[in-house]
Amino acid sequence: MTDRRTLPVPDGLEGERLDAALARLFGFSRSRAAELIAEGDVLLDGSVAAKSDRVHAGAWLDVTIPPPPAAPAPVAEPVPGMSILYEDDDIVVVDKPIGVAAHPTVGWTGPTVIGGLLGTGRRVSTSGAAERQGIVHRLDANTTGAMVVAKSERAYTLLKRAFKERTVDKRYHALVQGHMDPLRGTVDAPIDRHPSGDGRFAVVAGGRDSVTHYDTLEAFRSASLLDIKLETGRTHQIRVHMSALRHPCAGDLLYGADPTLAARLGLTRQWLHAVSLAFEHPATGEWVSFSSPYPDDLAKALEIVADDGR
């Protein structure tokens, strides 16, 4: 449904560019705000304006927000390289490979976990949005490792609750640049979309509560291998928090990693792996744990780092 809103420009936005003002008022990305302005969906004091126009306190904004495009339905086809770590009537735990999204989204044309499961004839929970059926948590497309999908409706309900209440033990290993100081610690910093609107996320005042615990497993000459436990599960959380500490994940060029080091390690994505996942089984109540070995690209990069200075 189309949403139309009319409101005055607050005093605090005096002199801001129109696209920046819209982004701050409505929580859009700057690029989304610019699209609305270009489509003529934004009037400033009754007239069409340009994204670079400056707004003045008290001026009237008339904004028409079209409904977001619907995500595509999952394509049911097997996903090469995606293996099953565990399966029963209620859950299936997959070892997600690189380049696979959890579920379809607008703009994503690659393979998905849900499509891969459906492509092998597996049944998944029908709860949730059509394109996300059975999905109770997500990994970035280029983050590998253990991920659970609900098969039964009861499993979906209980696992969603467990993730929301933070009773799931999610462990990641990350190879980050440099050495952490202190070697063990907690990052408690809110995350939201980056003000640039370029698809990144960032530590932003007023963002969503985000907590990351880390512990150094091994320090090498140019990098450190960390064990990371998440309390929250924000988009790009580990990548954003490590970047904010000036220790981005090796290979993570989007968040400031050194491209020279990435090339030397043969990395085409962030060195980040969901190494284990543990939770109360939704059917039996038993505490269950699953682990995923490092994929070849991460294992090779770690080997190169470990050999430095020997």
TrEMBL record:
One of its GO terms (molecular function) is RNA binding. Gene3D superfamilies: Pseudouridine synthase (3.30.2350.10), RNA-binding S4 domain (3.10.290.10). Keywords: Isomerase, RNA-binding. Its EC number is 5.4.99.-. Residues 16-74 form the RNA-binding S4 domain. InterPro entries: PsdUridine_synth_cat_dom_sf (IPR020103), PsdUridine_synth_RluA-like_CS (IPR006224), PsdUridine_synth_RluC/D (IPR006225), PsdUridine_synth_RsuA/RluA (IPR006145), RluA_PseudoU_synthase (IPR050188), S4_RNA-bd (IPR002942), S4_RNA-bd_sf (IPR036986). CDD domains: PseudoU_synth_RluA_like (cd02869), S4 (cd00165). It catalyses: a uridine in RNA = a pseudouridine in RNA. The active site is at D140. GO terms for biological process: enzyme-directed rRNA pseudouridine synthesis. It is an enzyme of class 5 (isomerase). Responsible for synthesis of pseudouridine from uracil. PANTHER family: MITOCHONDRIAL RNA PSEUDOURIDINE SYNTHASE, RIBOSOMAL LARGE SUBUNIT PSEUDOURIDINE SYNTHASE D. Belongs to the pseudouridine synthase RluA family. This is Pseudouridine synthase.
